[in-house]
Structures are given as C-alpha cells and as structure tokens.
Design a protein that fits this description.
Order of helices and strands: EHHEHEEHHH
Shape: globular
Number of helices: 6
Distance between the termini: 34 Å
Strand order of the largest sheet: 2-1-3-4
Structural class: alpha+beta
Radius of gyration: 14 Å
Length: 126
C-alpha cells in the first residue's frame, strides 16, 4: 500500500463534520481504495497527533491532516488540500486558496469551526 498523499483526522461525533467527510470519501473513493487518501476518526485515536502538538480538542475543533511530506495542515488548509485532490473540486482550491483569498478563507473557516465546536459541546456530543 503506498503512503497516503493526505491523511485527514476528523471528528465523527460532529454530525456536520462527519457528513462533510462522508461526502468527500464518496467523491474520493478510488483514492481511498488505492491508499492515496486516508480519513481517520480522531475519537478512535485521540493522541494520534500529539507528536505534532495537536490535542484531541484541537482536532475536534478543526480538521487536521498530514501531507505526503509529513507536514501538518490545519483547518482551511486541509479543506483546500482535499479539494485539490477531489475530482471536479480543484476550482474550489484555486478560488479559496489563492494568496488574496486565503486569509479570508482561513478566518471564515475558523469562525465556522468555532461555532460548530460550541454547538457540539452544548449538545453533549463529547
């Protein structure tokens, strides 16, 4: 099995996060089957990214990923990396990941992630 181009850790206990990743997995089924893309539930591996300084709560709050070069990506940068790999979604990576839009993309992602995290905590999902 080849080394994944991207390993994404996400929170299955968040219904919005789980649905979004479920959609991406279906769009990337061939890459997942071939081992080029991997999606992992942080709730099953709570200390998986401790070596990188990312706690379970950090990953529940924002997507985290490791790219093929071993670099840690967080938040909007993960979404952009996934879009680059997803057939028909490269335009999203270009639109939201260009140097002009990227700061706004990261800001918007972080605010949405904060709201989702708070909502999930209030619902007692963890």
């Amino acid at each position: 099995m080849p080394k994944p181009l991207l390993t994404v850790w996400y929170n299955t206990r968040c219904p919005v996060c789980d649905a979004g990743i479920g959609r991406q997995k279906r769009r990337l089924i061939e890459a997942v089957k071939a081992g080029r893309m991997e999606f992992r539930d942080i709730n099953l591996e709570p200390s998986a990214l401790a070596w990188a300084g990312a706690s379970l709560e950090d990953i529940r709050r924002r997507l985290h990923a490791i790219d093929a070069d071993g670099r840690l990506l967080v938040g909007a940068d993960v979404a952009i990396a996934v879009w680059k790999t997803t057939p028909g979604e490269g335009w999203l990576a270009t639109l939201f990941g260009n140097p002009v839009a990227l700061p706004l993309t990261r800001f918007a992602y972080d605010r949405f992630a904060d709201l989702l995290y708070t909502w999930n905590r209030r619902k007692g999902r963890w």
